[in-house]
Every structure is written in structure tokens, then in C-alpha cells.
Amino acid sequence: MSKYYSAFGLMIKSDLKIDEFVETGKCDNIDVRIRLGKVPVTMNFFREETSWYQAKENELIFSAPNVARYYIRYGNEIIIESLIEGISSATKVYLLGTAFGAILLQRGRIPLHGSGLSLNDIGIIVTGESGAGKSTIANALIGKGHMMVTDDVAALELDSEQRLKMYPSYPKQKLWQDSAKQMKIDVTKLKKIDGINDKYYVSIEKFCNKPTNLSAIFELKSTRCNHVIVEELTGREQLEVILNNTYRPMFIEPFGLIKKHFFQCVAMTKMVKVYRMYRPENEFTIEEQVKTIECLLNNLGGKQCNS
Fold first, then answer.
1. Which of these, 33, 31, 169, lies nearest to 111 by C-alpha position?
2. Is 55 helix (H, G, I), strand (E, B) or coil?
3. Which value, to the nearest 10 degrees, does the dihedral of the CA atoms of residues 182, 282, 143, 163 take?
4. Distance CA 194, CA 197 (A)
5. 291 φ/ψ angles, rounded to the nearest 5 degrees
6. pTM higher than 0.85 for the full model?
7. For residue 217, what is the DSSP state?
8. Which residues contact 96 (CB under 8 A, 6 or more apart)?
């Protein structure tokens, strides 16, 4: 029996039960259909091929070894062929990540790799390379009473009033074991993600289930320093942060979206502040990072920051 869900600003009908998503009642206006079935062995007239995917305009086939194969097309359909008996949590990780990242690109939205949050109705994204500390600081901000909008993939769209909307994904966060321990979270009470060592799902109660206007992007970097340092980026550096942190950028060229995506990102630079935040690489400075972000956002909202 099919299930109906809402995620990434899309209405979804699925043959697969997806506990991570927010379930809705039956809906006739479906944006994305998820089916279980056979995925073609190869794609005709593909524009790009690697060891794990084939892609062309509006279509993508990719493989997750020993997990599943996925076929994403026209921004409205995902077919999953499991390579194991049953469906594992790893199957869903690739669905919620790479598959929906491709769906968002095909639909003309901007997927950014990072954690999206709402701080007093001000939308932010915390981005950066793997290991930069995105999930750790997002979890700390949630612990301070702020709301999570999305965990790993931020779905962005320019609306008719030229505002940048960030859509909610689902009320769960993926957290590495080391990050959980730093945050004093008992991993024995968490659901482990199959096939991914030392990574767990954390259920989030403080979840913002409505679109949020995006105001700022924070790129995290660890470096040799004694305290947290933040700088506002402008011009080319601002644009590069957005381009470099687009989710699954390797699909942009075969999808025929290079020009469109570039101009979308240029438009974003006129709508959001972009900051680069450096943290000491060998010190746990999460409280200082949280205070720095809250202070900057208070200033954006016209409030004074108390030192």
C-alpha cells in the first residue's frame, strides 16, 4: 500500500515506507513518485558515465554497491531496485541524499550541502567539508532552542517575490559517533545507519515544518587558531562558497544545467550573507561557535549582541 509524505517542499507518493519523512494523508497532487522495481542496466545516449552513475538531461541512474540501484527521471520519479533482501536504512540514506539531490536539480531548485536551521525565524545554512563540524554545531543550536529545517540537503528556491525559500526536509539528523559523544548523547539509544560505520539517526523534536526565508550561510573550516574567527565574504568568494557547496554538483553538467545553476547562485549572492567561520582544529569550541552565530544573526535582526 502506498504511503504519502511531505519533504523538501514536495508531495511524495511512495511504495517504500520512509519513517524519516513526515507522513501526510492521501493527496492527488503528487510531485514525486517513488517505486520499487527494475532499474535499466544502462542508459541510452548518456552524456556522462562513471563507475557509479550514468546521466543525461532529466535522467540519472546510479548504484550504491551492495545496497541498491536508483533511477531518477524528469524530477518526478524515483525507481529503486534493491540489491539485498529487503530494504535497509542505507537504502534510504542514498534515497534521501543523492536521489533527492538529483530530483531537486531536475526540478530547477538549488540543493546545498549543509544543515538548515531557523533561529528566531531567520533561516541559515551551516555548510563545509566532511568533518568540518556541520552536524555538531547544528545539534548544539537545536539544543539552545532553535529549530532544525533540514539535516544534510537544503532545498532552496527563488519565489515569485524574489525571496530565497528553504524547504523543510524531515525531523531527523545524522550524527557521527564522535560528534554524539562530544554532545553527551548516548549512542546506545540511537538507531544505527546500516552500512555506514559509526553513524546514527537522532530524532529532532524542534523541527520547523514550514518554508523559511534564507538569510545567511556559514561555511565552517577547522584550522590552527586559538579561538573562533569569522569573516563576511563578498564578491567572488561569496559565490564560490555557494557553488562549491552545491549538493552533487557532478550532475549539473550532464543535466544541462551549468548556465542556469550559475545564474541561480549569482542571484543568491544578492539575497544572503555568506560567512566563513574558522574553529580551532584541536579544541572543542562549540559554545563559542554558537554564540558567534547568534550574535551575527542578532545584528542582522537589528538587535544588539551582548558580549
1. 169
2. strand
3. -140
4. 8
5. -65, -40
6. yes
7. E
8. 7, 18, 20, 152, 153, 169, 170
Let me know if domain 110-300 sits in CATH 3.30.110: no
* Cβ partners under 8 Å of residue 232, min gap 6: 273, 274, 275
| Listed residue (290, 10, 298, 47) closest to 150, CA to CA | 10
Candidates 151, 137, 164, 179; CA nearest to 293 is 137
Alpha helices in the chain (DSSP H): 89-94, 100-106, 134-143, 177-182, 235-244, 258-269, 286-300
Q: Show Cβ contacts of residue 177 under 8 Å, excluding neighbours closer than 6 positions.
A: 187, 198, 199, 200
Could you give the 3-state DSSP secondary structure of residue 137? Answer: helix
C-alpha cell at 24: 501526510
Cell representation of residue 235? 564578491
∠ CA(115), CA(121), CA(127), 5° rounding?
A: 20
Q: CA-CA distance, 76 to 303, in Å (whole number)?
A: 43
pLDDT in tens, 103-148: 999 999 999 999 999 999 999 999 998 777 888 899 999 999 999 9
Quick: pLDDT tens for 174-222.
888 887 877 778 888 888 887 677 888 888 999 999 999 999 999 999 8
Distance in angstroms (rounded) separating the CA atoms of residues 221 and 242: 15
Closest CA to 166 of 215, 211, 126: 211
Strands 32-36 and 77-82: parallel
Please report, for the chain, the start and end positions of each structural domain, with discontinuous segments joined by +.
3-106, 110-300
Burial of 274 (0-12, 13-18, 19+ CB in 10 A): buried
Residue 133: φ, ψ to 5°:
110, 25
